[in-house]
Protein: Ribosomal protein L11 methyltransferase
Organism: Marinobacter excellens HL-55
Amino acid sequence: MPWIQLQIPADPDTADQLEDLLMEMGSDAVSMEDAADQPLYEPDPGTTPLWSQTTVTGLFQSDRNIEQLCSDIRDAWHQQTQQSLAEIDVTLVEDKDWERAWMDDFHPLQFGERLWIVPSWCDAPDPDAANLLLDPGLAFGTGTHPTTALCLQWLDGQDVAGKQITDYGCGSGILGLAALLLGADHVIGVDTDPQALEASRDNARRNGVEDRRLDLYLPGNDPDTRADVMLANILAQPLISLAPRLAELTLPGGHLVLSGILSHQAREVMAAYEPWFVMDEPEQKEDWIRLTGRRKDG
C-alpha cells in the first residue's frame, strides 16, 4: 500500500505546532528534517533545537482524500494561528521496510588511510584498520558532515601515538575515540550537553576504551590538563570566544584543529587564535573550513 506524504516548510517557532497538527489529522508518522543544510551541534541542556528552515513531513494512509486532507490542514492551521500555510508538497511514496531502507543508506566510511567509521550492522571492510563503531544519529555527529570529515582526515594523517588529546565540544565522542583508536594515550572530552557526554560514554563502551583512556566533563569542571592536540568542532562564534581557554589548554608546540566554520568566517576565527598559535592556511570541504595551527612557545 502506498502512503500519502505531506511536506510543509516551517521555522523553529511553528515546527512543533505543525507536528502536533499533523498528528491530530491522523498522520501515522511525523518527522522533521533540515531544509537548508544547516548543522546542529550540541544543544544547551534541556533544549530541543531546530533548524532555521525545517521541513515537517507527515505520512498518511493512501485511502485518505488528498484534497480534503490538505484543505482540513489549512483550515485548522488558520484557526489556530490566524495565518495561512504557504505550501503543502504532496507525493505518493511506496510501502517498504522503512527501518531497512534507512539502514541501507549508511555504509562504512573511510577517512584517509587508516580510519573507518563502521555502522554496527556492517562488517569492517579492513579488519586491521582503526575501525570506530558508530551508528548514525540525529544530534551529535557520525562523520558524514564535512566539518567532522575534515577533522577525521586530519587525525588519520597524524602520528598521535602516546599523545594527550582534548576534544572540546565532543558530542558523540567521534573525534576523541578516533584518536584513541589511532594510538592516542588519553582523551579529555568536554561538552555543554550532558546527553552528549552520555553518548560519548556509550560509544566508548562499544569501542572498548571507556575504562582506560577517556574522561568526560562539562565546561567549568574540566581539568587544566594541557593537550598535545586540541580538537574543537563547534561553530565559529563559540570558537572565537573560547580562544583564550583553548590556548591555555594546549601545550607549547601542540596542534590546534578547529572546524564548524563556514568559508567566510575563517579569517575572523584565525585572527582570534593568532596571538597564541601559528596558523596554517584553511582547508576547505564544500562550504566548510578546517583550521590548524601550532602553539607558540611563549
Residues 36-50 have pLDDT under 50 and may be disordered. Helices lie at 15-24, 66-81, 98-104, 146-156, 174-181, 194-206, 236-248, 266-273.
